[in-house]
Amino acid sequence: MIEVCLFPAAGYGTRFLPATKAMPKEMLPILTKPLIQYGVEEAISAGCHTMAIVTGRGKRAIEDHFDISYELESQIKGSSKDALLDGLRDVMNVATFSYTRQKEMKGLGHAILTGESLVGKEAFAVILADDLCYSKDKSVLTQMVEVYEKYKCSVVAIEEVDLAEVNKYGVIDGSEIEPNIYKVKSLVEKPSPNKAPSNLAIIGRYILTPDIFDILRTTKPGINNEIQITDALMKQAENGKVLAYKFSGKRYDCGSMDGFVKATNDFYNMPL
Q: What are phi and psi of 98, to 5 degrees?
C-alpha cells in the first residue's frame, strides 16, 4: 500500500486575492470543510496514514487546523456544536502530519523535491488540494493505488478537457493498454492547442516512485522558469515507467472561481 501522501501547499493563491492574502488557499471552505481536509480524507480512504505537507510563509492555519484547539473545544464541549468536529477528530486520530517549508516558489517539481525528507524511500501519493475530486464509489486516489499495485510504476490522473484549455495543463501522449489506462510516451507542459499531443490533461493526483527525487534534482527549469514535474515524469516515461489513468468521478478546479463556485453548489445539493 501507499503509506505517505504529499500535499504541496506553499503557493500564494493569487487568483483568490484578497481572500488569500492572510489565509492559505488550501483552507478555503467548500461548505464547512477546507479544501485540504477533503484531500486528506481522500488520502485516508486510499490507505495513506502519513500526510506530508509542504507549506510556506503564512500557512500556519493548515497546521492549526489539524491540531487540537483546547480553548475552542472547551467552549463547545457538551453543546450541539461539539459534534461538528467529529469528522476532523477522526482524521486526526488515524493520520499523522509532518510539515516542511518551501522557501522559494520554484514550481510543483521543486515543491515535491522539498518534501523528500518527509517521504522516505517508498512510492508515495501527491494531492493538489485545489483539485477537489468526487467519486461516488471509490475515491480517485483509491482507483490510482489499484493501478499502482498492478503495475508498480508512477501513475498520473488524467481527464479529457476541451482542446482550447490544454494550455493550462500538462498533457500526455500515450497508448491505451487497457480500458482507461495509458502507457505514457511523452508529456508536454501547457502546450498550445495546435501543438498538444492529445486532450488528455493531468490533474492534481499522482503516485510517484522514489527515483523521481533524483530526477528532479537534475531537472532544469522549464515553463515559467520553474521546475516542472512533467519534465521529470518525461524522464521516467522514456524508460516506460509512467502510466496515465482516466479516473471515474468528477474533478473541480477550485483554484479557479468558476470551479470553486461549481463545487460549492454541487456539494450543497448533493444527497447525504
A: -130, 155
